[in-house]
Amino acid sequence: MAASLAAGLADAGVSVARFGACTTPAMFMSCILPGHEYDGAVMITASHLPVNRNGAKFCTAEGGLEKKDITTLLMRAAELAVDAGQLPSDRYNDHAFVITAALQASSALVRVVDFLPEYAAYLREVIKKAIANPEHPDSPLAGFKIVVNPGNGGGAFIADQVLGPLGADVSASINMEPDGSFPNHTPNPEDKKAVQATRVAVLEAGADLGIMLDTDVDRSGVVDAAGNGINRNRYIALMSAITLRENPGETIVTDSCTSNGLATFIQQLGGKHFRFKKGYKNIINKGVELNQAGVPSPLMMETSGHGAMRENYFLDDGAYGALKIVVEMVRRQLEGAGDVGDLLKDLREPVEAMEIRVAIQASDVRSEGDLVTAAFKQWVDAGCGGADHWQLEPENYEGWRVRVTEEGGKEGWILLRPSLHDPDIVLNVESEHVGGMRAILHHLLEFFKAHPEFQVCTGRVEEFVYG
Ligand SMILES: O=P(O)(O)OC[C@H]1O[C@H](O)[C@H](O)[C@@H](O)[C@@H]1O
């Protein structure tokens, strides 16, 4: 399969630029930046997932390829392999083999390009232009201390090649050495250890800001000068505050797992909230579609830290988001407006938040997932087992989300949906008072107890901690 794809590329006279270490947004920009404008790019990465889940990410100037495009591409490679009398290689690593072999196809066609410095130069220009400091335009970050935590992934260049050369002191940055075994913590801005390590580094250094990146830099989160972790809903809220100031009244698209308080926050800022589905590609596609339909939507963000902006080619780009926060930090300091974290003072937050992933044990995972969600909808329609404080949300784009009225005017919610990629049913629950989540889950158990036929087993719990 791999050899035949390589042969196919060589036959077609495709020339290949090999970048070495790269990031997802950089790869995309290689299809856009003048002087480069490659027809397509591909990288091998496990993204934020463990090392044994490496895969290939493909993109063109139109953005990341859709699942169906990649399927077509790989099927075509497989057909060529069969035509050439070859058997597909190891099924767990096929994608990696395909790409590796393609890049090594014919040395005459392969050029080694050191692209990251050029991409970094582009990002520096973006920041310089946004800050436009009249006194020191080339070092607009002079006097600022910024901690970058790339989690031993590919994002160290943000400190070394972007923020440092613009004058920032990045010496307190941590986990800068790329190491695919991720010895310090999972490179995931939602990860408790990633937040804690960044917080400690920021507070010890007396830094103005901390930036957390995932391995391939398409997800991010920040820590403010007071050490508050700004990820998940907080990060969307912060980005919304900046974006809605620049684009008043427009629509922010998010995934389905955002807090009720975030919707209120966006509305209070004069914006509109479109709570769509999980999956960064889903929200980006929805944002593109809304803009085309005349509903201006400048920001699409997931609680995972994935985010795309209309002003940045609708690119799934963690670095760009974090750099917007850097620019905001400078702007606020110049205006004497205080820390970026202060922008979140009106955000109502859950007291408890949890994700439970219930493994589906049936062989037909998709059908079983649909069965469980359909039964849940029926149970909700029939009155949620007598709980009249449970109300189905009027708009649901995946699974079913129920709003739970809690004591003292507080509100919780629960969302049950099939996972996008894993053989799991995913349950997200939030509550605005201590013990509320337990009460919601306790009541939900009645639903599962009424369906002993479901082929599911005990869930894996992810607890989200704020602050
Ligand atoms: O549906 P889930 O299993 O929760 O996975 C959902 C996640 O899948 C991938 O990791 C995508 O990159 C994310 O954008 C998405 O949020």
Automatic annotation (TrEMBL):
The keyword Flavoprotein does not apply. It is an enzyme of class 5 (isomerase). GO terms for biological process: glucose metabolic process. It catalyses: alpha-D-glucose 1,6-bisphosphate + L-seryl-[protein] = O-phospho-L-seryl-[protein] + alpha-D-glucose 6-phosphate; O-phospho-L-seryl-[protein] + alpha-D-glucose 1-phosphate = alpha-D-glucose 1,6-bisphosphate + L-seryl-[protein]; alpha-D-glucose 1-phosphate = alpha-D-glucose 6-phosphate. Pfam families: PGM_PMM_I, PGM_PMM_II, PGM_PMM_III. GO terms for molecular function: phosphoglucomutase activity; phosphomannomutase activity. Residues 2-74, 122-227, 233-332 form the Alpha-D-phosphohexomutase alpha/beta/alpha domain. Its cofactor is Mg(2+). Its EC number is 5.4.2.2. The keyword Transmembrane does not apply. Keywords: Carbohydrate metabolism, Glucose metabolism, Phosphoprotein. InterPro entries: A-D-PHexomutase_a/b/a-I, A-D-PHexomutase_a/b/a-I/II/III, A-D-PHexomutase_a/b/a-II, A-D-PHexomutase_a/b/a-III, Alpha-D-phosphohexomutase_SF, Phosphoglucosamine_mutase. Belongs to the phosphohexose mutase family. This is phosphoglucomutase (alpha-D-glucose-1,6-bisphosphate-dependent). It comes from Chlorella variabilis (Green alga). The lineage of its organism: Eukaryota, Viridiplantae, Chlorophyta, core chlorophytes, Trebouxiophyceae.
